[in-house]
Amino acid sequence: MALRNHKLITTNLQLAVMKREFASLELDALVKEWQVLVNGRIDQVYQPEAKEVILQIRKSGGEKTLLRIAPPIAHILSSKPVMPQQIQGFCGFLRKHIGNVRIFSIVRVPGERVVRIDVTKGAGLRVYIELYGKGNIILCDEKDVILGVLEVQAREDQRIAPRERYVISGGTDLANVSKEDIGVVMDGKRSVQDALASGLGIGKVYAKELCLRSRMDPMEKRGDVAELFEAFAQLIREPIDARVVWKDNEIVDVTPWPLLVYEGLKQEVKPSYDTAVESA
Asked: Fewest CB atoms less than 10 Å from the CB: which of 79, 125, 191, 225?
């Protein structure tokens, strides 16, 4: 693939980034697919663009997989683009610290749109991938002291910079949400859709999906908690059946499952959620 084609791929994905971010349920689907990378070894790090890092991971048997991280989007690449010859600063930093190390685990931080990759080297290092807002890539030690970042950021609650401590509060793992949890967020003051979206942290698309699966009006302020919980439990158990959703010749969403909210729209089936995100 020519460098020109790589630039085109990057530009198309940047357009997708401007339109959307991952919902928590979608990140869970991605992390599920990324489990094939666990126990693989990071044998190379590339930085094709200022806010884009690609990890080349060698799995057992010698097969290589590329994980592209361009916050707030990340996915496995289906093919290797031509990489730049010049090494940028953060790329060199990552090569020094996590080059030739093994991936111990990949998880989503509960309650956050953040993925944590633990690597085995010395006392242990961890890479936090923030997949919301501006996003970021943060390398920390075992005590969450920041060693290096893709982009230094000043936030209201903390400064994301080397030698600062990375503080992430976390929350409830969606896999552990109970019927009682749904009952608590349904306070009767907001619509069912808004209560589920903010209370569970799943976003409005999936909140509306739960309402449709439960055969209730998303704008109502009261709903059947048992029905909503059953719809939620069923959704998170569904095997990934990724779709690229089109409307008027434009991509409007990329989902891990077919959703009722997009019923009637063209839905292009993809073999994995990673593949769907890459093609968007």
From this structure: 79
Detail the DSSP E strand segments found in 64-143: 64-70, 73-77, 101-108, 114-120, 125-130, 136-140
Note whether 181 and 111 are within 8 A (CB).
no
Q: How many Å apart are CA 119 and CA 101, to the nearest integer?
A: 6
| CA distances for 237 relative to 121, 231, 234, angstroms | 34, 10, 5
Which of 152, 155, 171, 172 is CA-nearest to residue 163? 152
Copy the structure tokens of residue 157: 């609650």
Residue-level pLDDT at 45: 96
Q: Check pLDDT > 90 for residue 172.
A: no
**Nearest-CA neighbor of 125 among 90, 153, 98, 100?**
98
Question: What average pLDDT is seen over the chain?
Answer: 90
Total-model pTM: 0.89
3-state secondary structure 151-217: CCEECCCCEECCCCECCCCCCCCHHHCCHHHHHHHCCCCCCHHHHHHHHCCCHHHHHHHHHHHCCCC
